């Protein structure tokens, strides 16, 4: 099994984004249950994993039993809402209550419902790929099926991935169901492009924004994988992989798996594996400063031949320029490990940041991976 699937988070506490853990804990610990949730953010940031966790939390057999027992014990027969003002019951645990309640909402991952959701075979949890089921007929079928009661779970969960791919007619058909859903139904919509969703759909959903993971969050995820596999990988290797993942947990884990399978999990080998041992970002910028068009283009060709990840290389250039910009304005005390600060004016640093920011964006759609970088070299060196 691929590592990114093997180590997919199965509980809220395993989500590597702290902000997301807190927000989901707050909403799922309260007495309010949203009938429509929107997960919006870049690819590989854990939207589908979080959706499955929510499905387990709502349907976990053990958690349902625990809630029933606690409800019976409370004289007023009301739930304590996480984040609300302290009640007589919660004042005793003012400091520890929040952590305790967050733990209480976790799925057990042992009951048949949790296990079947994890394995993707639960008959009451439906995962729909809107990219390939985007028409009105599919949504009409969904509207008919949703009326039926759950087979074994407490709620029917509909996870619609890449929901922005639905047609206008399909959105209109879905809207009626979102407005008046059956009490046993919960929709979890996931998208990388929330701006493409109609406002009528957005207004019916509780929205959670997934942001690109920070380097620290990706490192936390990678270390969990390394620990689980019981392998030794240098911290510098994990850092390099985290830097090249572009904030994607999935991409980072896939890069780690590839490095392990190719026996490249050392600092020296990982640079070769990433194609980052051809030329450093610092040396490349020196070539641009000296207007050495030929050598700079040759370096790009050599990186391409070595299988370099040009987005990773461009990201390193931007990080270096960012450090220079902050240093030149006295924001940071430590001088960058480069003599570029004395050779580039603030205006030139800004122009280079704009140039390579465009390169980073263009790389995603380039027919030839090295072409945007080559164009940038000629534009800078020859002023075209």
Task: Explain what the structure shows.
It contains 19 helices and five strands. With 384 residues, it is an alpha/beta fold. It has three domains: 3-209, P-loop containing nucleotide triphosphate hydrolases (Rossmann fold, 3-Layer(aba) Sandwich); 215-273, Helicase, Ruva Protein, domain 3; 281-382, Zinc Finger, Delta Prime, domain 3. The relative contact order is 0.10.
Query: What number of structural domains do the residues give?
Result: 3
Helix content: 40-55%
Specify the structural class: alpha/beta
H/E series: HHEHHHHHEHEHEHEHHHHHHHHH
Q: Walk across the major sheet and give the strand order.
A: 2-3-4-1-5
The counted number of beta strands is 5
CATH superfamily of the largest domain: P-loop containing nucleotide triphosphate hydrolases
Mean pLDDT: 84
């Amino acid at each position: 099994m691929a590592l990114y699937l093997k180590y997919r988070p199965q509980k809220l506490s395993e989500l590597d984004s702290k902000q997301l853990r807190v927000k989901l804990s707050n909403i799922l610990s309260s007495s309010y249950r949203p009938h429509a949730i929107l997960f919006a953010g870049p690819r590989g940031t854990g939207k589908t994993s979080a959706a499955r966790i929510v499905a387990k939390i709502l349907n976990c057999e053990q958690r349902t039993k625990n809630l029933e027992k606690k409800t019976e014990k409370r004289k007023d027969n009301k739930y304590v809402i996480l984040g609300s003002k302290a009640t007589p019951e919660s004042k005793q645990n003012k400091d520890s209550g929040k952590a305790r309640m967050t733990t209480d909402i976790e799925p057990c991952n042992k009951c048949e419902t949790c296990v079947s959701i994890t394995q993707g075979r639960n008959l009451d949890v439906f995962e729909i790929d809107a990219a390939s089921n985007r028409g009105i007929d599919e949504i009409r079928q969904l509207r008919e099926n949703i009326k039926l009661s759950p087979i074994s779970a407490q709620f029917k969960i509909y996870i619609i991935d890449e929901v922005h791919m639905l047609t206008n007619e399909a959105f209109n058909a879905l809207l009626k169901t979102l407005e008046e859903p059956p009490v046993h139904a919960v929709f979890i919509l996931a998208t990388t492009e929330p701006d493409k969703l109609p406002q009528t759909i957005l207004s019916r959903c509780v929205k959670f924004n997934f942001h690109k993971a920070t380097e620290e969050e990706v490192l936390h995820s990678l270390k969990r994988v390394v620990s689980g596999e019981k392998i030794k990988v240098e911290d510098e290797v994990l850092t390099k992989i985290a830097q090249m993942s572009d904030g994607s947990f999935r991409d980072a884990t896939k890069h780690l798996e590839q490095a392990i399978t190719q026996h490249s999990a050392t600092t020296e080998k990982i640079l070769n594996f990433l194609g980052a041992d051809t030329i450093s970002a610092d040396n490349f910028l020196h070539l641009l400063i000296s207007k050495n068009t030929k050598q700079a283009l040759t370096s790009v060709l050599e990186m391409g031949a070595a299988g370099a990840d040009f987005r990773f290389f461009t990201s390193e250039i931007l990080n270096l320029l960012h450090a220079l910009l902050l240093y030149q304005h006295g924001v940071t005390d430590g001088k960058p490990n480069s003599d570029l600060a004395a050779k580039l004016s603030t205006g030139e640093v800004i122009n280079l940041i704009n140039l390579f920011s465009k390169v980073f964006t263009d790389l995603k759609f380039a027919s030839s991976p090295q072409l945007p970088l080559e164009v940038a070299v000629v534009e800078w060196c020859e002023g075209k």
